[in-house]
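re: that chain from earlier
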Amino acid sequence: MISAAEFMQGSSLQNFGSGSVLVTFVITIVALVFWAIVEWRNHRPQLAVLVISALLSCLGDAGASMLVMLRAAPEVSGPVLYRAFDAEATLVTSAPFPVYLSTVGYLAYRAFEQRWTRRRFWLVFSSIVFADIAFEYLMLRVFDLYSYAGNQTLQLFGLPLLWPMTYVATSVLLGAVLYLLRRYLRGRRMLLAIPMLASGYLGFPLLLCWPALVALHADIGPVPRLIAGIAGVGCLVTTVYALTSLLDRTDVEPARGRVAYQGGPRVREQSCGNPRCRYCGPARRTGVSPALRRCHRRRTR
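^ sequence. v structure.
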């Protein structure tokens, strides 16, 4: 057991910051567990899967800290959960991650499920990135709870901007994976996704910004490291943009004469080219059965 004296061995500002982080995020995790139970009883197991995966991801927090070279301040590193990869997984640095993964991941899942417009998607998650940057600045520069070691790049007031973007994008990627699996893993079978999603900040950041992570641990100069950091941001933004293709693009006008809406998912059909065709023309498209149109297109090829 860790005594209070061992836990509160930093300055008064550090003790206030670490205590506030623990109380806030522990209460939030408990609230998320109850919310996940309610969702499960309403036949929506996705939040429960994300909460369980996020809690298990704490087992890989030391590996994630090693990747981004996050180091807890010695004065607040008393409650150490475990040590691995020459890094420490502390209670203070590990507590926020389950909340990030589950809440932002579930918000991304609902965004894909409810078919948000791309403008709304980018606006919401960009706001989350800015909020995370502000939170990291408080923890890093005001309360001095941890720091980023190594030759970090793309810094603003001592904060590497790439990692808050990576944390949010990782949660979005988790929500996207869960959304893609929803048709194949139903009910309790959704629990089969937990081992993959539980990798959390240990596995998914490598998919999103691997150039920056490789450069951070490489013995290279500042200019190549800066180029690798910009490339990491490009890979991250490109991946998230690719995920937005899962959204229903209601913020743009569909191509005229090529998209037929059947009441379900939008399907793209090839027209025979005759605008007056009673089978696939724009004026008669909705009144003819899809099977008859497909038969007509086969005969006209």
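The CA atoms of residues 112 and 192 lie 21 Å apart.
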